[in-house]
Amino acid sequence: MNTVQIKNIKIGEGIPKICVPVVGRTREEILREARHITTLPADLVEWRADWYKDVFHIEKVLATACELQRILNPLPLLFTFRTSIEGGEREISASDYLALNIAAAESGYVDLIDAEAFSMENTAKEIISHSHDHKVKVIISSHDFQKTPPKEELIRRFNIMQDSGADIVKIAVMPGSRQDVLTLMEATLEINEQYARCPVITMSMAGTGVLSRLSGEFFGSAVTFGSAGQASAPGQIPVKELREILDIVHKSL
Question: What is the pTM of this model?
């Protein structure tokens, strides 16, 4: 499996990298959260732009991204507009989604972009191609807030996403039981052992799925998400506690 180098971190080997989301509503809140994250043991930062009240004003988005890059450097910055279909804060048309992500890729202010594989599937390949033209890496993602599909379906989705040409594949699902968490983790292991050509990120959400956020090094999930305050998805735990647990697991393997 290939690893992905972004600034000073290598995704796909060793301890899972900790990504911390920024979920402020205003520019001031966003930049304040970013300054706080620089005091934490984070490896990269995700700006959840769908939370930003001015997200449909591209010039304001880019000005905020510029400030985020300045504050966070050398931490890599992941730009994400999570659509409401996949658990995000607001709806967006396919054309606006494409324009926003292309503008972010062209700006030079972000290091990665999240492109949704299925809810916006007519835009994902264009976002990937355009981002790569501007030396920006892409995480192609799929989020199911309703259920955990069977293992075979998770593997099928992974293979479709991997074939898109994105740099990293991310799958997040909602468990209805402990067995669902095991299904996600078993799928992750099988994907890594038999199919993966690129780094994989998987998680089972909510409190029930918290084990999946802690055991990535064992099962093969390359990034885990921790909160610096308000979580961007159910089940995230504070960054400092997450770092301690990941270090304990690493020393035991």
Answer: 0.95
Planar angle of CA 225, 227, 213, nearest 5 degrees: 35
Check if the beta carbon of residue 205 is closer than 8 Å to that of residue 234: yes
Tokens linked to 133: 């033209």
Structure tokens at 158: 């992974």
Preceding amide of 16 cis, omega within 30? no
Q: Could you tell me which residues come within 8 angstroms of residue 95 by beta carbon, excluding any fewer than 6 positions away? A: none
Closest CA to 202 of 165, 228, 170: 170
Do 187 and 151 touch, CB atoms closer than 8 A? yes
Q: What is the pLDDT of residues 60-109, one digit of tens each?
A: 999 999 999 999 999 999 999 999 999 999 999 999 999 999 999 999 99
Does residue 231 have a pLDDT over 70?
no
Give the whole-angstrom CA distance, residue 36 versus residue 200. 28
Q: How far apart are CA 105 and CA 128, in angstroms?
A: 10
- Angle value at C-alpha 45, between 126 and 177, nearest 5 degrees: 85
143 counts as catalytic: yes
Catalytic entry in 170, 240, 250, 251 = 170
Q: CA–CA separation, 252 vs 183, rounded Å?
A: 24
Catalytic annotation, pick one of 17, 130, 137, 143: 143
